[in-house]
Amino acid sequence: VLAGTSAPENAFFWTGPGKTGGNRWEIGIGFYAIESSALVGDYGFGVDDVVFEWDEFHPLDEAAFAPPHLPACSRFGTPGNPAGEPCASITVDRTDLYECEESLEITVADPKLPPGTPSVEVAITTDSDSVVVETSRFRALAPNAKRFVLAAVPGAPGLFGGTVLFSSLSNAPSSVFVSTPVDRQFAVYYVDPACDGDGDGLAGESLFDDLDGDGVNASVDTCPFTYNPLQEDGDGDGVGNPCDNCVTSANASQADLDQDGVGDACELDDLDGDGVANAADNCPDLYNSEMTTFRGNGQEGSCIYTPMAPITPCLTNSQCTACTAGGCDLTRGFA
Question: pTM here?
Answer without folding.
Answer: 0.55
